[in-house]
Write a structure and sequence with these properties.
alpha+beta; six-stranded mixed beta sheet; 6 helices
Length: about 280
């Protein structure tokens, strides 16, 4: 029997559904993956300006980065005009619903990265992210210890871990209304610099790879206007299709790598959403 030329999901037509975007993982599979995670993912990604990593010929071929609406995208992608640092105004992309996730698959988006604020108020960040980026010589056990150290140093401000799908862990703090970018960025910078000053053999607060040797970079730079971080449940553009996976603190012990979860694993085993992950917006001390 001849395979149909396309499929539709949430009102979005997906062409060439059996084209592989990852080895052994087709557009059809990715649509199924995003259908499975949509309810858990959308509260974090909807209404956020996005930077998309697109790979029209699949992850093994060169891709490109897109954040502006240049036409030709499915209607499930929306755009909002944003004045950038240089003064120019550009239409930035965002999505609102599961149709947007399916549209991302149709356009061969293999990574979705989002701002720390939403289109409703671009100058009011609603999340803070510490991205733990270890030197290759640093073991994952040390990265987990760093994540727990951040949690402890935050005191009464609750945080949640997310496996990045790459080498590290993101520690995410949801913020209540009333914060602005200077306050959030300043808090994150001081926090990272204090960690590095008090434990210089373990942590560094500077981006330089030379400075990072043998240590973990506590990346606080995601917390500036226009900066982005990978969105929860997004696939990553690596051959085995790892995903950025939120987990509970109690589950961290059993995880042995930041890329432990893949889109195929979620399809085969189902999705377990940690209770309360990323909930309860808070005010920074």
């Amino acid at each position: 029997m001849t395979e149909p030329a396309g499929l539709a999901s949430h009102g979005v037509a997906v062409s060439s559904p059996d084209r592989e975007l990852f080895p052994g993982l087709s557009k059809r599979d990715l649509v199924r993956y995003y259908e499975a995670v949509a309810d858990a993912m959308l509260p974090h990604v909807a209404g956020r300006p996005l930077t998309l990593r697109r790979f029209p010929r699949g992850v093994t071929a060169p891709g490109f980065v897109q954040q502006h609406d240049n036409g030709g995208l499915p209607g499930a992608f929306r755009a909002i005009d944003i004045r950038e640092a240089g003064g120019e105004v550009e239409p930035h992309l965002y999505i609102e619903d599961a149709a947007g996730l399916v549209a991302a698959v149709q356009m061969a988006v293999l990574e979705l990265h989002g701002w720390g604020s939403r289109i409703a108020d671009l100058d009011a960040p609603d999340r803070l992210v510490f991205d733990l980026d270890p030197d290759p010589s640093v073991g994952f056990a040390e990265v987990k210890a760093a994540a727990r150290a951040i949690r402890g140093r935050l005191g009464g401000v609750e945080s949640w871990p997310m496996l990045s799908g790459g080498k590290g862990i993101h520690v995410v703090v949801p913020l209540e209304p009333g914060h602005d970018w200077p306050a959030v960025s300043g808090f994150a910078k001081r926090f990272a610099e204090t960690m590095a000053a008090e434990e210089p053999d373990a942590y560094v607060a500077e981006m330089s790879k030379a400075e990072r040797k043998g240590r973990t970079f506590v990346d606080w730079l995601r917390n500036e206007r226009g900066a982005t971080a990978v969105m929860p449940y997004s696939t990553r553009a690596k051959p085995d299709a790892p995903v950025a996976m939120p987990i509970g603190w109690d589950d961290l012990d059993a995880v042995d790598a930041a890329n432990a979860f893949t889109a195929r694993r979620v399809l085969d085993e189902g999705l377990r959403v940690p209770d309360g992950w990323g909930g309860t917006p808070q005010r920074l001390a």
